[in-house]
Amino acid sequence: MTSEQAGTATSAVETREWLSGAAAPGRRWMLLTACCQAFETAFTIVQWAGLALVARDVLNGVRPSWQGSGILMGCGLLAAAAAWSTARFQAVGRQRIAHAIRRRLVAGLLSAAQRHAEPNPATAALAAVELTDDIADFHAQALPQRVSAPLSMALILVTTVVVQWPAAVLLLLASLLIPLNMRLAGLFAKEGADARMAASTRLAAVVLDSFRGMPTLRNIGASARRRTELARAADDLNATTIAVVRRASLSGAVMDVVITFSIAANATYVGLSLLGYVRVGAAPGMTLFRGLLALLICPMYFQPMRAMATAFHSKERALSAVPAIRALLVEPESSVEFGDRVPPSSEPVTVVVGNVSLRFTAAEEPTLRHVNLTVPAGGWAVVAGPSGAGKTTLLSLIAGVCAPTHGTVRWLTSTGSSTPWLGGCAWIGQQTVLLPGSVGDNIRIGRPDASRVDIERAVAAAGLAEVVARLPQGLDTQLGEGGSGLSTGEARRIAIARAFLSDAGLWVLDEPTAHLDAGTEAQIIVALRNATLGRTVIVATHSTALARSADLLLGLTDGTVHTVTEAMRV
Fold first, then answer.
1. Which of 112, 210, 394, 501 could cross-link to 446 by cystine, CB 3.0-4.6 Å?
2. Fold agreement between 16-328 and 350-569
3. Residues 131 and 197 sit within 8 Å (Cβ to Cβ)
4. How far apart are CA 398 and CA 373, in angstroms?
5. Of 189, 199, 188, nearest to 123 (Cα)?
6. Residue 422 and residue 371: Cα distance in Å, rounded?
7. 447-486 tens-digit pLDDT
8. What CATH number is given for 16-328 in this structure?
9. Burial grade of 368 (CB within 10 A; 0-12, 13-18, 19 or more)
10. Phi/psi at 14 (nearest 5 deg)?
């Protein structure tokens, strides 16, 4: 075996192990589903026995006995209850699995500090929406069937043996052909699933890129060309999808032939035995009840096989989805990294940036070069510089949104030292995202478990008390889509209140007074000063007013940082 083949084999094993481990959040619910499926099979067998009794009496011209009718109705209700429970438990287990994967995806997509490159948005969207469902669907189908199918088939086979064992032999002979068909179909399905995922990713990328660049495409007259490219990507997805469906249909057709042949053989045997043309010496005598029951439960024997075949096709789609999802996840490099975190608190943080350089790709010039700076605990530091100098990038390094190519960024407190991590500091950007809901709910985003008193304290610290007092329902006033009903300055105060509520010792602010008039800007600066009392604050801004309020003013030009002297501030 070559090294390349060994690597492929190892990757395949890791993929299967990851796929198996992804089922953990819903495993308990899937076991309950399997139990319900087994009970449904048992109740259905008894139900068909009651139906056979009723049918025998009707065909013999006798009034059906109450035993047969009672068994038919009672077990029918029990089987329906078991089927309802099966669907309920299966849906809950599937939801748990999908939710757990999506939570890991969100954490992985946000944890840019451990990435060397940003993930492809189209791949991320496809993974979060479709590929996650492929994995959850597979486990929802396969896990219960893995437990219940052998038990259900054994119950049916034992019942058939007791009723008429030659019919059970015919069932066994037919079932030997199905696993081979499933394996061959699975090999074709795997190839088709890979091709379909690649086509889906390409179509998503084209659509996303088209929306992003619509004004540019219109201005340069490339809309028609992009329309052609989009149509070509859609056609490729259609072709690969049809190929997958065709292969699955072919597999299903082969299985249908085997199942139909088995049922026909059993029906022929039962009919000839009742007519007296066939007699197997060691077999029990054929009666109308035995023959009807054998024919009724014969199709049931193949239902678990059909479900397993469906799960087999789902497995190939899930295996194709795993590499794309794993590429988006960020696993902790070691337990030390997480144990090295400074617990979030209101204690001010000393930020030390040591010889940091950042290069996004190997082909371009570094965005930041050999940056060294120290922001003391409780200090106000302002980073000023022209647009494109790298101010937001520097803030992203300090906040833990991205990692430096070279050098280190450390947070220091009395409890220890740590690398920056998402959620460890308060971040206020140029735009405040306001969601439909009350003012209080929008502030509570900073700490979902905050009490009413905590929110009111944050409102006062952000200078928002007068604004809230003017609102018709105070904190309970509902905001429209995008925060309609509030001015830009009032929205910024809500962002300040959120940050205050998070009680972080480090605040990182990216142009917090952008797009504000001078009067409103002065009010926001006062609110920030009051809310961040005793905290460490690092601000990137073009604002002269903010720069004058800094304890430490830093200039950023051509990717390097220098301290601005008092004389240069004026």
1. 501
2. no
3. yes
4. 11
5. 199
6. 21
7. 888 888 888 988 888 888 888 888 888 888 887 665 566 7
8. 1.20.1560.10
9. buried
10. -65, -40
Contacts of residue 373, Cβ cutoff 8 Å, sequence gap at least 6: 351, 352, 353, 381, 554, 561
Instruction: Name the residue ranges covered by the structural domains of the chain.
Output: 16-328, 350-569
Please give the DSSP secondary-structure letter assigned to residue 416. Answer: E
The continuous run of DSSP H or E covering 508 comes out as: strand 506-510
Q: How far apart are CA 466 and CA 125, in angstroms?
A: 42
Q: Cβ distance 124 to 109 under 8 Å? A: yes
How confident is residue 292, by pLDDT bands cut at 50, 70 and 90? confident
Residue 382, beta-bridge partner list: 539, 553
Q: How far apart are the first and last CA of the chain?
A: 72
Backbone phi, then psi, for 358, in 5-degree steps?
A: -140, 125
Token output for 481 = 């889509």
Sign of the Cα pseudo-torsion (352, 355, 359, 365, in order) = positive
Contact criterion met (CB below 8 Å) for 537 and 496: no
Quick: pLDDT tens for 478-512: 876 655 667 888 888 888 888 888 888 899 988 88
Q: How far apart are CA 305 and CA 290, in angstroms?
A: 24
- Long-range contacts for 110-115 (Cβ within 8 Å, ≥24 apart)? 110/422, 111/330, 111/422, 112/401, 112/402, 112/403, 113/400, 113/401, 113/402, 113/403, 113/419, 113/420, 113/421, 113/422, 114/330, 114/333, 114/403, 115/330, 115/402, 115/403
Specify the CATH number for 350-569; select among 3.40.50.620, 3.40.50.300, 3.40.50.720, 3.40.50.2000.
3.40.50.300
What phi and psi values does residue 447 have, to the nearest 5 degrees?
A: -160, 100
What is this structure's pTM?
0.55
Tell me the residue type at 111: S
CB count in 10 Å sphere of residue 110: 12
CB 554 within 8 A of CB 384: yes
**370-383 burial, b for 16+ CB within 10 Å, e for fewer?**
ebebebebbbbbbb
